[in-house]
Write a structure and sequence with these properties.
The complex is a heterodimer of chains A (155) and B (406). Chain A is an all-alpha fold. Helices cover 75% and strands 0% of the residues of chain A. Chain A has seven helices and no strands. The two termini of chain B are 27 Å apart. Classes of the chains: A mainly alpha (155), B mainly beta (406).
Chain lengths: 155, 406
């Protein structure tokens, strides 16, 4: 891997890491999977170096696919979200709430509202269509709205 | 976030307060484990012949007795997809991909008459396919109701019939064919289904089978893993268990082959490079040499074909084959496939070919070291399965109907 490739990957890491990490965390609800998926995607990007045209797009796509693979392979109930000191309880509760969405709905809302991607960009990342992304965003919004309303009624 | 309710938008904004862990040091110190192994190259004339045979559906047996070329003369190149046509009716639910049947295209069978569900188990004897169990949604929760019903497809009548209710619910359902019957399991219980009698028999192992169990058949025994309990049709015995995992994940994929069991998975970050072999003859596990694939978490495909073990990974589409006699790895051509699927289903076809389900079906002929791509499974979900069905391969989606992650 050339130095140029290393520098490109590191530049993407510095610019995208926080947003990618938070997006993966919101998507998986699991710090370990988040760290593993992000590290794996960047490690593979480093190994490919100059062979990758768009490092940012490649890393986002790979990280989410790696995370989805980890989630799908974990043939057991989703672990509860770890509430550790850096994560406020209210945020952890919201991340837990996101886990009630389907994988695709959750990926769509996280990529839209945490990462800030447009529906067309999300469609490219997830290998689907913009129309499907919009439908999933709408359904996810409805689901979150209902969940928050129910929580409000019971507290 | 103007399209969100204010309270929901506020929740998303608060995620910006989460402090991310810094992984850069880990990324830059990860071992570079890609190894280059000299490729063994086939004779070119076999390439096109093999591709044509697969398309015509007569390749598996015809080439199974061909010996490997002794000399290296040409560099193998991956063949183009056999067809670029996008199927419209293929695999709405379950279908055949004949390995040697006279059809030149896969045969679609009707969807099983089952209610909507995800993660159903599927297994097949030479004549029957059982689709059983599963649960309501993808958000796995042990409190979620599970289905105990199933359906059986009979290849002679080409029709589905409902099974009698199983004596166990189908959470985390798994199944494997065993001596003409089909063993099923959920996270804690096992049962045996007889498709001829349409009857169930509860199996009672002598010890707890734990959770996340998997079933394989090896040495003509039904083996429950990872607890390593074996049933020979009349009695149970305990086998040597796989070595303990290096981390919290453990080997999570197993395949039975003859008297052996192969296990892989676990041990981040190189878990899917580790392959363990259990030999019934010595009741012991042996770690095989690490594969030369790039280290990728989750989703390596593995198939045992004759005396060869073939592995592929989805991130770089690299592939390699291990000679089980000499225990030497050899790189294979990269899978010529533009799509990825993070859970790679795999199956052996005869004694010379291995099939891997990415989104399409990729088949490698070990005689020629060439890949053939069979389009057709792109409408299937990540939960699609690839199951040997007599001399055919069965491609089925365990999400019914298959509408998730298209």
């Amino acid at each position: 891997v050339g130095v140029v490739g290393n520098e490109r990957v590191e530049a993407v890491y510095r610019a995208q890491h926080a947003k990618l990490w938070r997006s993966l965390y919101a998507h998986t609800g699991d710090r370990d999977i988040t760290n593993d998926a992000e590290a794996e995607a960047f490690t593979q990007a480093l190994r490919r170096g100059d062979h990758i045209d768009d490092v940012s797009a490649w890393v986002w796509k790979s990280a989410f696919r790696i995370a989805n693979g980890m989630l799908a392979s974990r043939r057991r109930p989703l672990r509860s979200v770890t509430i550790d000191p850096p994560t406020a309880a209210s945020i952890a509760e919201f991340v837990s709430m996101l886990q009630q969405l389907s994988d695709q709905q959750r990926a769509c809302v996280v990529l839209r509202y945490v990462a800030g991607f447009e529906p067309s960009e999300i469609a490219e990342l997830l290998g689907t269509t913009s129309g499907t992304v919009r439908v999933q965003l709408h359904r996810a919004h409805e689901s979150l709205r209902n969940t928050l309303r129910l929580d409000g009624e019971t507290t | 976030m103007t399209d969100l309710d204010p309270d929901i938008a506020q929740q998303f904004r608060e995620l910006a307060n989460v402090n991310p862990d810094d992984n850069w040091a880990r990324i830059t110190t990860a071992p570079a484990t890609v190894r280059r192994i000299p490729r063994r190259k086939p004779k070119r004339p076999i390439v096109l012949a093999a591709a044509a045979c697969i398309v015509l559906g007569v390749g598996a047996v015809a080439l199974s007795t061909r010996s490997r070329p002794a000399t290296i003369r040409t560099v193998p190149s991956a063949v183009e997809p056999a067809s670029t046509a996008t199927p419209t009716t293929f695999l709405t639910s379950t279908s055949f991909s004949p390995a040697r049947a006279p059809e030149s295209t896969p045969v679609t069978i009707p969807p099983p008459p089952l209610a909507e569900r995800v993660s159903a188990a599927v297994a097949a004897t030479d004549r029957y396919v059982l689709v059983w169990g599963g649960h309501v949604s993808n958000d796995l929760d042990s409190s979620e109701p599970a289905f105990n019903d199933g359906a059986v497809f009979d290849r002679q009548t080409r029709g589905w019939t409902a099974t009698a209710p199983a004596p166990l619910p189908g959470h985390y359902a798994t199944a494997v064919a065993y001596n003409g019957r089909i063993a099923v399991a959920n996270a804690r219980q096992l049962a045996l289904y007889d498709p001829v009698l349409n009857s169930w028999t509860t199996l009672s192992p002598p010890a707890s089978v734990g959770v996340d169990l998997l079933l394989v058949v090896a040495n003509n025994e039904l083996v429950v893993l990872p607890v390593a309990l074996a049933w020979n049709g009349t009695s149970w015995r305990r086998l040597t268990a796989p070595p303990p995992p290096d981390d919290n994940y453990g080997p999570d994929r197993f395949v039975g082959h003859g008297t052996d069991i192969f296990a892989w998975g676990a041990a981040l970050p190189t878990g899917y490079l580790r392959v363990l072999r259990y030999a019934a003859t010595t009741d012991s596990w042996q770690e095989l040499p690490r594969s030369p694939l790039i280290p990728v978490h989750y989703g390596t495909g593995l198939a045992v074909v004759g005396r060869s073990l073939v592995v592929v990974e989805w991130l770089g589409m690299s592939a390699a084959v291990l000679n089980l006699d000499t225990l030497e790895w050899e790189s294979l051509p990269t899978v010529p496939h533009p799509l990825v699927k993070t859970q790679i289903e795999s199956a052996a076809i005869g004694e010379s070919k291995a099939a891997f389900l990415f989104n399409d079906l990729a088949v490698i002929d070990l005689n020629t070291r060439t890949w053939t791509i069979h389009p057709g499974s792109r409408n299937m979900s990540l939960q699609a399965k690839l199951v040997p069905f007599g001399d055919d391969l069965l491609l089925g989606d365990t999400i019914i109907p298959p509408t998730f992650w298209k």
